[in-house]
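Narrative of activities, Objective 1.

The group set out to show that a structural description can be obtained from nothing but a protein's sequence at a throughput compatible with the screening campaign. Below is one input-output pair from the validation batch, recorded exactly as produced.
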Amino acid sequence: MAQKAKKLRTMAGAMIRELHRKLPSEALARHQELLALFKRVKDQKRSDKNKVYSLHEPDVLCIGKGKAGKPYEFGRKASIAVTKTTGIIVGAMSFNENVYDGHTLPDVLKQCWTITGVCPTDAICDHGYRGLAKVGDTDIHTPNPAKKKDSAYQRRKAKQRFRRRAAIEPVIGHLKHDHRMVRCYLKGAVGDAINLFMAAAAFNFRKWMRKRGGFFLRFWRAFSSPRAQADGWRTAPHRLGNGFFRGD
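Output recorded for this entry:
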Protein backbone atom coordinates (compact mmCIF):
# COMPACT_ATOMS: atom_id res chain seq x y z
CA MET A 1 0.00 0.00 0.00
CA ALA A 2 2.82 2.39 0.86
CA GLN A 3 4.55 1.65 -2.45
CA LYS A 4 1.36 2.40 -4.40
CA ALA A 5 0.86 5.66 -2.54
CA LYS A 6 4.46 6.63 -3.26
CA LYS A 7 3.99 5.83 -6.95
CA LEU A 8 0.84 7.96 -7.12
CA ARG A 9 2.63 10.84 -5.38
CA THR A 10 5.50 10.58 -7.91
CA MET A 11 3.09 10.63 -10.85
CA ALA A 12 1.19 13.60 -9.40
CA GLY A 13 4.42 15.54 -8.91
CA ALA A 14 5.47 14.86 -12.52
CA MET A 15 2.10 16.10 -13.82
CA ILE A 16 2.24 19.28 -11.72
CA ARG A 17 5.76 20.08 -12.95
CA GLU A 18 4.71 19.42 -16.54
CA LEU A 19 1.75 21.80 -16.18
CA HIS A 20 4.08 24.48 -14.84
CA ARG A 21 6.38 24.03 -17.85
CA LYS A 22 3.83 23.79 -20.65
CA LEU A 23 1.00 26.12 -19.63
CA PRO A 24 1.07 29.63 -21.12
CA SER A 25 1.82 32.45 -18.71
CA GLU A 26 -1.79 33.73 -18.78
CA ALA A 27 -3.24 30.29 -18.04
CA LEU A 28 -0.60 29.68 -15.38
CA ALA A 29 -1.54 32.92 -13.62
CA ARG A 30 -5.25 32.06 -13.87
CA HIS A 31 -4.81 28.59 -12.35
CA GLN A 32 -2.10 29.45 -9.82
CA GLU A 33 -4.31 28.79 -6.77
CA LEU A 34 -5.47 25.44 -8.15
CA LEU A 35 -1.91 24.32 -8.89
CA ALA A 36 -0.85 25.39 -5.40
CA LEU A 37 -3.68 23.27 -3.99
CA PHE A 38 -2.49 20.25 -6.01
CA LYS A 39 1.07 20.70 -4.71
CA ARG A 40 -0.20 21.06 -1.16
CA VAL A 41 -2.11 17.77 -1.43
CA LYS A 42 0.93 16.01 -2.90
CA ASP A 43 3.30 17.21 -0.18
CA GLN A 44 1.03 16.77 2.85
CA LYS A 45 1.73 13.95 5.32
CA ARG A 46 -0.41 12.01 7.72
CA SER A 47 0.89 13.88 10.78
CA ASP A 48 0.37 17.35 9.27
CA LYS A 49 -2.25 19.78 10.55
CA ASN A 50 -4.88 21.50 8.41
CA LYS A 51 -4.76 18.81 5.77
CA VAL A 52 -6.81 18.95 2.55
CA TYR A 53 -9.44 16.20 2.49
CA SER A 54 -11.28 17.24 -0.67
CA LEU A 55 -10.07 19.01 -3.81
CA HIS A 56 -13.43 20.60 -4.60
CA GLU A 57 -13.95 21.62 -0.93
CA PRO A 58 -10.46 22.30 0.49
CA ASP A 59 -11.88 23.93 3.64
CA VAL A 60 -13.53 20.72 4.87
CA LEU A 61 -12.56 19.88 8.46
CA CYS A 62 -11.95 16.53 10.15
CA ILE A 63 -13.94 16.61 13.40
CA GLY A 64 -13.39 13.96 16.05
CA LYS A 65 -16.68 12.67 17.46
CA GLY A 66 -15.32 10.29 20.09
CA LYS A 67 -17.79 7.55 19.12
CA ALA A 68 -16.87 3.96 18.41
CA GLY A 69 -19.15 3.61 15.39
CA LYS A 70 -18.14 6.94 13.81
CA PRO A 71 -14.94 8.36 15.37
CA TYR A 72 -14.59 11.12 12.75
CA GLU A 73 -16.83 13.27 10.57
CA PHE A 74 -15.79 15.45 7.66
CA GLY A 75 -17.52 18.76 7.20
CA ARG A 76 -17.84 21.95 9.17
CA LYS A 77 -18.59 22.56 12.85
CA ALA A 78 -22.08 23.88 13.62
CA SER A 79 -23.68 25.06 16.84
CA ILE A 80 -27.43 24.81 17.53
CA ALA A 81 -29.41 26.60 20.26
CA VAL A 82 -32.89 25.30 21.18
CA THR A 83 -35.43 26.59 23.69
CA LYS A 84 -35.89 24.48 26.80
CA THR A 85 -39.64 23.80 26.70
CA THR A 86 -40.89 24.33 23.13
CA GLY A 87 -37.87 22.97 21.23
CA ILE A 88 -37.73 25.90 18.79
CA ILE A 89 -34.34 26.53 17.16
CA VAL A 90 -33.32 30.09 18.03
CA GLY A 91 -29.66 29.91 16.99
CA ALA A 92 -27.74 28.09 14.24
CA MET A 93 -24.19 29.03 13.28
CA SER A 94 -21.50 27.44 11.13
CA PHE A 95 -17.81 27.91 11.96
CA ASN A 96 -14.83 27.89 9.62
CA GLU A 97 -12.48 26.31 12.18
CA ASN A 98 -12.67 23.29 14.43
CA VAL A 99 -12.78 25.38 17.60
CA TYR A 100 -13.44 24.31 21.17
CA ASP A 101 -17.19 24.06 21.80
CA GLY A 102 -17.10 26.67 24.54
CA HIS A 103 -15.67 29.25 22.14
CA THR A 104 -18.78 28.98 19.96
CA LEU A 105 -21.14 30.10 22.73
CA PRO A 106 -20.59 33.90 22.54
CA ASP A 107 -21.43 33.99 18.82
CA VAL A 108 -24.46 31.71 19.17
CA LEU A 109 -25.85 33.62 22.15
CA LYS A 110 -25.38 36.88 20.27
CA GLN A 111 -27.30 35.41 17.33
CA CYS A 112 -30.10 34.31 19.69
CA TRP A 113 -30.34 37.85 21.03
CA THR A 114 -30.38 39.27 17.47
CA ILE A 115 -33.17 36.92 16.33
CA THR A 116 -35.40 36.88 19.39
CA GLY A 117 -34.49 40.18 21.05
CA VAL A 118 -34.03 38.33 24.37
CA CYS A 119 -30.73 37.35 25.97
CA PRO A 120 -30.91 33.85 27.54
CA THR A 121 -30.33 33.83 31.27
CA ASP A 122 -29.27 30.16 31.40
CA ALA A 123 -27.67 27.83 28.87
CA ILE A 124 -27.71 24.06 29.50
CA CYS A 125 -24.77 22.40 27.70
CA ASP A 126 -23.04 19.03 27.59
CA HIS A 127 -19.54 18.04 28.72
CA GLY A 128 -17.99 19.58 25.60
CA TYR A 129 -18.57 23.04 27.12
CA ARG A 130 -16.77 22.36 30.40
CA GLY A 131 -14.65 25.18 31.72
CA LEU A 132 -17.21 27.96 31.25
CA ALA A 133 -19.39 29.29 34.04
CA LYS A 134 -20.73 32.49 32.49
CA VAL A 135 -20.81 34.15 29.06
CA GLY A 136 -21.97 37.75 29.30
CA ASP A 137 -25.23 37.71 31.25
CA THR A 138 -25.86 34.00 30.59
CA ASP A 139 -25.04 31.31 33.17
CA ILE A 140 -23.59 28.13 31.68
CA HIS A 141 -24.68 24.82 33.21
CA THR A 142 -22.81 21.59 32.45
CA PRO A 143 -23.31 18.14 34.04
CA ASN A 144 -21.26 17.81 37.22
CA PRO A 145 -21.30 15.29 40.07
CA ALA A 146 -23.66 16.30 42.86
CA LYS A 147 -22.09 17.93 45.89
CA LYS A 148 -22.51 16.47 49.36
CA LYS A 149 -24.17 19.63 50.63
CA ASP A 150 -26.83 19.58 47.86
CA SER A 151 -30.32 18.75 49.04
CA ALA A 152 -32.54 16.13 47.45
CA TYR A 153 -34.52 18.89 45.75
CA GLN A 154 -31.38 20.40 44.20
CA ARG A 155 -30.22 16.99 42.95
CA ARG A 156 -33.63 16.28 41.43
CA LYS A 157 -33.78 19.67 39.70
CA ALA A 158 -30.28 19.25 38.26
CA LYS A 159 -31.15 15.79 37.00
CA GLN A 160 -34.30 17.07 35.30
CA ARG A 161 -32.39 20.01 33.78
CA PHE A 162 -29.69 17.90 32.17
CA ARG A 163 -32.16 15.25 31.10
CA ARG A 164 -33.95 17.99 29.19
CA ARG A 165 -30.64 18.98 27.55
CA ALA A 166 -30.56 15.59 25.81
CA ALA A 167 -33.66 16.66 23.83
CA ILE A 168 -31.39 18.54 21.40
CA GLU A 169 -29.92 15.26 20.10
CA PRO A 170 -33.07 14.20 18.17
CA VAL A 171 -33.35 17.78 16.88
CA ILE A 172 -29.88 17.44 15.34
CA GLY A 173 -30.86 14.05 13.92
CA HIS A 174 -33.98 15.53 12.26
CA LEU A 175 -31.91 18.39 10.83
CA LYS A 176 -29.49 15.91 9.29
CA HIS A 177 -31.87 13.33 7.89
CA ASP A 178 -35.17 15.19 7.36
CA HIS A 179 -33.88 18.60 6.29
CA ARG A 180 -30.82 17.66 4.18
CA MET A 181 -28.13 18.83 6.56
CA VAL A 182 -26.34 15.48 6.47
CA ARG A 183 -24.81 16.47 3.11
CA CYS A 184 -24.44 20.00 1.78
CA TYR A 185 -24.67 20.56 -1.98
CA LEU A 186 -23.80 24.27 -1.79
CA LYS A 187 -20.30 25.54 -2.46
CA GLY A 188 -17.87 26.86 0.14
CA ALA A 189 -18.22 28.17 3.67
CA VAL A 190 -21.09 30.48 2.68
CA GLY A 191 -22.98 27.52 1.22
CA ASP A 192 -22.54 25.56 4.45
CA ALA A 193 -23.89 28.47 6.50
CA ILE A 194 -26.88 28.89 4.16
CA ASN A 195 -27.63 25.16 4.27
CA LEU A 196 -27.57 25.13 8.08
CA PHE A 197 -29.77 28.21 8.42
CA MET A 198 -32.31 26.94 5.88
CA ALA A 199 -32.46 23.55 7.60
CA ALA A 200 -33.15 25.24 10.95
CA ALA A 201 -35.84 27.45 9.37
CA ALA A 202 -37.47 24.40 7.76
CA PHE A 203 -37.47 22.59 11.11
CA ASN A 204 -39.21 25.51 12.84
CA PHE A 205 -41.68 25.95 9.99
CA ARG A 206 -42.58 22.26 10.04
CA LYS A 207 -43.16 22.42 13.79
CA TRP A 208 -45.37 25.49 13.32
CA MET A 209 -47.37 23.77 10.57
CA ARG A 210 -47.90 20.77 12.82
CA LYS A 211 -49.12 23.09 15.56
CA ARG A 212 -51.52 24.85 13.17
CA GLY A 213 -52.56 21.69 11.34
CA GLY A 214 -56.28 22.20 12.03
CA PHE A 215 -56.27 25.68 10.51
CA PHE A 216 -54.53 24.54 7.32
CA LEU A 217 -56.98 21.65 6.99
CA ARG A 218 -59.98 24.01 7.23
CA PHE A 219 -58.26 26.37 4.78
CA TRP A 220 -57.76 23.58 2.24
CA ARG A 221 -61.33 22.24 2.59
CA ALA A 222 -62.81 25.72 2.18
CA PHE A 223 -60.90 26.56 -1.00
CA SER A 224 -61.11 23.11 -2.57
CA SER A 225 -64.89 22.74 -2.23
CA PRO A 226 -67.02 23.11 -5.39
CA ARG A 227 -68.93 26.04 -3.86
CA ALA A 228 -65.71 27.96 -3.19
CA GLN A 229 -64.51 27.36 -6.74
CA ALA A 230 -67.84 28.53 -8.13
CA ASP A 231 -68.27 31.60 -5.90
CA GLY A 232 -64.67 32.78 -6.07
CA TRP A 233 -62.07 33.35 -3.36
CA ARG A 234 -63.82 36.36 -1.74
CA THR A 235 -66.64 34.24 -0.31
CA ALA A 236 -64.58 31.17 0.55
CA PRO A 237 -62.94 32.64 3.70
CA HIS A 238 -66.35 32.79 5.41
CA ARG A 239 -66.34 28.99 5.50
CA LEU A 240 -63.21 28.85 7.69
CA GLY A 241 -64.84 30.09 10.87
CA ASN A 242 -63.05 31.18 14.05
CA GLY A 243 -62.58 34.69 12.64
CA PHE A 244 -59.86 33.79 10.12
CA PHE A 245 -59.70 35.74 6.83
CA ARG A 246 -63.12 37.33 7.03
CA GLY A 247 -64.28 38.73 3.67
CA ASP A 248 -65.61 42.22 3.02
